[in-house]
Amino acid sequence: MMTAGDTEQHKLEAQLQTATEALRKAVMRLFQDRDIHPQLVVLALARVTGEVGAGAALAGEQDPEKLLDDLAGVVRQAGREFHDMVRLATVTAAGSA
Fold first, then answer.
1. C-alpha closest to that of 41 among 28, 51, 52
2. pTM over 0.70, yes/no
3. Helical residues (DSSP H) of the chain, grouped into ranges
4. Could you tell me if 36 and 30 are in contact, meaning their C-beta atoms sit under 8 angstroms apart?
5. d(CA 8, CA 14)
6. pLDDT digits over 36-77, tens only?
7. How far apart are CA 49 and CA 9, in angstroms?
8. Helices 4-33, 38-59: crossing angle, 10 deg rounding
9. CA 82, CA 90: separation in Å to the nearest integer?
């Protein structure tokens, strides 16, 4: 049986997924449609992420340094998970060739 907390968690996860997909599409368009070096796109995205994170912390009356530290951890974990996924896909594809 789902509780009100479960329902709220499900809504938040759906919102996170929607936002993630929209941002991913926007970044991919920059990679594909523009004459901008990919590393510069990543640096710009990191800069904007930091600015938005600091702004959110200030708006929520939180310590920006704490939020930015948490944000750095999320970025690091997401990068590791993506790297592992790509490596696994490469090994699997190589093994089936």
1. 28
2. yes
3. 4-33, 38-59, 64-95
4. yes
5. 10
6. 898 999 999 999 999 999 999 999 999 999 999 999 999 999
7. 23
8. 150
9. 12
